[in-house]
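Quick check before the chapter quiz. The format below is the same one you will see on the exam, so make sure you can read both the input and the output lines.
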Amino acid sequence: MEENPTTTQKEMGDIINAAPSMVNVYLNEYEEKAYIEREYLSPRKVIYRVTSEGVKRKNFLIINYLHELLKLYRLAKENVVSFFNDLASRGYRDILLYGAGEVAGTILEIVRDREFDSIRVVAIIDDEVSKREEELGYKIISRDEIDKYKHDAIVITSYTYEEEIKSRLEEINYPKENIIRFFSN
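Here is the expected output.
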């Protein structure tokens, strides 16, 4: 609404995945709370203006959202640190991550910020060719390149494809005891 005051209820519904009738319910509520004002140009054409109260409410919601995200990030960070400390206590030093998605990216961010002395990510394995460039400075390799990298274990970082990845590693006779699941640990 702030960017395009003539946005229709149907367009708003498409954005939030709701029926236009539900959007109208929300708009009525926002108007009652003085978050928006409507100007009717015709029975079917409306201009929506976000009021100063609406801007204040939006900013409040954004801050709360960011606060919750930070709490989730801290929890994820604690879990990753604990996971890596456990790996180190079991004697693992050099590891490969398998799965170049959001999980691997988050783990790499935490590893980079924390700078673990006892664990080192050597590279990332991914089966999707389009992902084989770099992720935060780590080379993304194919399964065929595993033997080219000195490592102690492979950590599966894909939640969705965890079983598939485990099976792919077993197909190439990768030692089962060196396959570590991040999610099913």
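If your answer matched, good. Residues 31 and 127 are 51 Å apart (CA to CA).
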